[in-house]
């Protein structure tokens, strides 16, 4: 086999990332040497590769599905939003500057097409198959001229396109038809068909609609994937996370000890790498909630202040909502608080920021003896160390440089009483360290909670990826997918104009 496929979606969050990962895991189980690819990703959830390159966590997860080491080639352009109108542009794993959306789409994006195509060509020359993920919708006609991630990459690389739709949202047939109908004839020629995602119920009830869709578009449906809980791993967008009442997917298994452990995560603006708490949620008996009100900290055994792309803005948000005062009071009472990356910086004495917010000297919460100065260069490393007598691995992504002035050493940061701070993302995925940390939290909180000695976060992640592969293998037309990846889009697919005869609302 030698080929590729672009997984597009009718909308954001249609399931492109998990479908791509599922196809990758299915292929690698067939003995295919496969790699993931996303030309351009907009996400605050990122990862550091072994060579020190920053890429989207979704592509790192997809690389794990492929059982290969992630590289910058798999996500050559990463956009990290710093607000509603600007993003940091990360090219081949390194930041190259801030840019407004208008400036990016006004010219910069198209100049990146050559870089993107070179990366894809290198991957295709190394692997038997490359499964590409699109972004948003391929029918964003206002952006088509500068598109390098959907039909722009498909057209230039000759990739067949599979369009995924989330039927749980409703309107999936209209979304499928509208997506195809809005494309040019040249783009439509690459759209091979559809994949229904998150279906609940009897598939036989859906089949008449799928037959009508084929009659209207001339394109088949390659599968209907059932709704499954707990498969939204390593989501891309921290900006869209729902705050009120959100509970991270967690084990329903009862706690090993007598008590559960309650974790509250402050849902700060521009929250980054909120996937850090997935390892906590994986523990039986640990309940993780995202909160945005001070009173929601009252019953928490542990409060996590997560990373953010806007440290100064997040500090202001904490103060406006009374969360800052609650955190300071909590630290003084010896109740557990963990600051990760930007959260660690906020817990310090002050932040000197002439890079990110350009606000200069800004007071921190003052609960850790740490002073932070933002540097123009971004720290991108994969450190290994020891804490609480256990080996710890992590990764760092930050402009802030912390000067630790006291306290007890804790990874790259420090600990004062039951307040902890570190830049190390992913540290809680180290099983022994996570258990030791949770034992400390339980003791400080007076909870009879015991971490499970059998929970392996890496094994749970592998199980999730296998479940994604099972979804494709059991509910998709894998023979047809194989032909599509190997041979490209079928020839002779009809052009579907908007308002075509036989469609609702058509005239004539």
TrEMBL record:
Pathway assigned to this chain's UniProt record: Cofactor biosynthesis; adenosylcobalamin biosynthesis
Domain of life assignment: Bacteria
Pfam families in the cross-refs: CbiA, GATase_3
Gene3D superfamilies in alphabetical order: 3.40.50.880, P-loop containing nucleotide triphosphate hydrolases
Positions annotated as active site in the UniProt record: 341, 425
Entry-linked CDD domains: CobQ_N (cd05389), GATase1_CobQ (cd01750)
Keywords tagged on the record: Cobalamin biosynthesis, Glutamine amidotransferase
Residues covered by the CobB/CobQ-like glutamine amidotransferase domain: 262-431
Domain CobQ/CobB/MinD/ParA nucleotide binding: 6-238
Function summary: Catalyzes amidations at positions B, D, E, and G on adenosylcobyrinic A,C-diamide. NH(2) groups are provided by glutamine, and one molecule of ATP is hydrogenolyzed for each amidation.
UniProt-listed HAMAP family: CobQ
Matches recorded under NCBIfam families: cobQ, PRK00784.1
Family: Belongs to the CobB/CobQ family. CobQ subfamily.
The protein, known as: Cobyric acid synthase
Species of the source: Streptomyces akebiae
